[in-house]
Amino acid sequence: MERFRAILVLILVGLGLCSAANPPQDDDCPGFDEWFFTNNQTFENHPIEFENPLPKWLRGTLIRNGAGKVEMGNRKFVHYFDGFAKLHSWKFSGNGSAFFSAKFIQSRVYTESIAKNDIAPFLTFEGVDPPFGEIERYESFMLNMDNTVVNVFNYSNNIVAMNDIWKVYEINPSTLDTIGVVDPPRPPSQYSNLGRLNVMSTAHPVAEYGATSTFDILNTFSLIPGTKERLTVVRVTSLSGRELVAEWEIDKTSYMHSFSVTPNYVILLAAPYYVNMNDMLKYASVQGGMAWNAQDNATFYVVEIKTGKVHTLKTENVFVVHHINSFELPDGKIVLDVPAQPNPYAFALYDVAYIHNKTARVNLTAQPVLTRYTLDIKTQDVQRVSFNSGPKAPCATSLEMPVFNENYRHMNYCYVYGQVVNYNGKGFSHIALVKKDVCNSAGDLMYAAPHQYFTEPWFVPAPGGKEEDDGVLMSSAFDGDKKASYLLMLDPKTMTVMNRSYMPTRVPFNFHGRFFDAVY
Ligand SMILES: *[C@@H]1O[C@H](CO)[C@@H](O)[C@H](O)[C@H]1NC(C)=O
Ligand SMILES: *[C@@H]1O[C@H](CO)[C@@H](O)[C@H](O)[C@H]1NC(C)=O
Ligand SMILES: *[C@@H]1O[C@H](CO)[C@@H](O)[C@H](O)[C@H]1NC(C)=O
Ligand SMILES: *[C@@H]1O[C@H](CO)[C@@H](O)[C@H](O)[C@H]1NC(C)=O
Ligand SMILES: *[C@@H]1O[C@H](CO)[C@@H](O)[C@H](O)[C@H]1NC(C)=O
Ligand SMILES: *[C@@H]1O[C@H](CO)[C@@H](O)[C@H](O)[C@H]1NC(C)=O
Ligand SMILES: CC(=O)N[C@H]1CO[C@H](CO)[C@@H](O)[C@@H]1O
Ligand SMILES: [Fe+2]
Predict the structure, then answer these.
(1) How far apart (Å, rounded) are the C-alpha atoms in residues 15 and 17?
(2) Which helix H or strand E contains 514, and what residues bound it?
(3) The pTM is what?
């Protein structure tokens, strides 16, 4: 029920951003449904051909993570976020040859589900259909999440697959074989862990400035009503090395999927989207444990990396899934860019029932607005400015799944690349890739083509590139007319097609990926 209410609210918010004057009856696009279907097929370093020659400098492997199977036996997942994790990779040897791989992560939930030909009871984002019984719900809460379906990352040359949980699965980036689960020790705490649960984190670690280490967070939930919960910022020093940067007590835990880092600060934006462990236990789903409090303020926590000191700045209510880039101004103020949403209801877009309902899909209006926050920790002032889209890409500021040239992380930059769904007001399946120029909206560009569906892009910088947009932009695309997947390469300078390579199998919609230079 909650889900359908969410869809209704979603239709009411944000009207008019990129909407068409006369929306069609339904979002009836060929192949869009297939993009989200199960595909069991696996590949290992299968040679692929590009339509045009590859640049010689292009060497490394793009690995993307996402759901590859949305049911097992007679049970299916309710939300696409819960589909069994499947990795896809595109390996560029640097001599013009390229290779494709596709494999499921051999996680505990996946292997146990295969063995019993049913979805094994682990915690899900939004439950299963038919639902688990009471014992399975309790079991799934105790075992927690195991499906690392969201992102991939490089921890000291160990490649891991992750979700918003503390543990990760290590993978072989050359073959996509699963090496094993890694559940790093929690850093020692000055607070009590009695009746506390230390299992949630984010799927978006962020590099430390000038170092090979990264930062992430740890959520500590309390199962004892009336007692404090906790936030911890950790430094990831190796595959299982975690150092304490800062920890502090809070009343309620906000769901956070990412955060920002500058040379001196880690910045968290805690929206009033609270996670309640007792409700999570009741519904055996993360979604069931989360509640949106529209009347509450949001909070920025600004952590001084060197001292661990935490500054708390209140701001008006907002919800953010992905932080983009962040940097410090000469006067010490902190800038961070985010796609801001009025509430978290856009999660409902990836309900399996919603994805496959072309009538509901047509009125999608839950679009974020690219927003720049400027924080002053001396005065606790929070400034918020929305970007405008330029004439060449009227919906550029509605992007999500943001990426940028990682060589510009922690510093002032201009280009954000991302995905805009419903870019023309004709429905969810109308997806554009955009380049948003946060320095000058005249530089905003977009790419879209009929019945072509795109995932989050990834920017690969050209070695020694002089300009921020010297490189290639890659996206895992699906051709709805041919019902075939391809890797799309755009020229980031013009957002026009450079190259394309069709895959030997369908690559289902996927969430995040990264390019690993050292795998070729
Ligand atoms: C995928 O594998 C499962 C068994 O693991 C089987 O039931 C199903 O039919 C397969 N689906 C496809 C599309 O091959
Ligand atoms: C490029 O290198 C790869 C990996 O070493 C090799 O398999 C492939 O045959 C080479 N391609 C060409 C065109 O030499
Ligand atoms: C907190 O929320 C209230 C109600 O939405 C709003 O009026 C107020 O400006 C917010 N406070 C801050 C510091 O933004
Ligand atoms: C699809 O969505 C429409 C509009 O929200 C709704 O009336 C209809 O019941 C949905 N269909 C299914 C099969 O859920
Ligand atoms: C979609 O929006 C149009 C125009 O506002 C409206 O006529 C139609 O009923 C809506 N459809 C659904 C399924 O809500
Ligand atoms: C991972 O990062 C380390 C340190 O930055 C780097 O040396 C290594 O080549 C990277 N590994 C891969 C597979 O990209
Ligand atoms: C990655 C890339 O863009 N490769 C090539 C694609 O095709 C054009 C036209 O042949 C080349 O100029 C690119 O280098
Ligand atoms: Fe994400």
Answers:
(1) 6
(2) strand 512-516
(3) 0.94
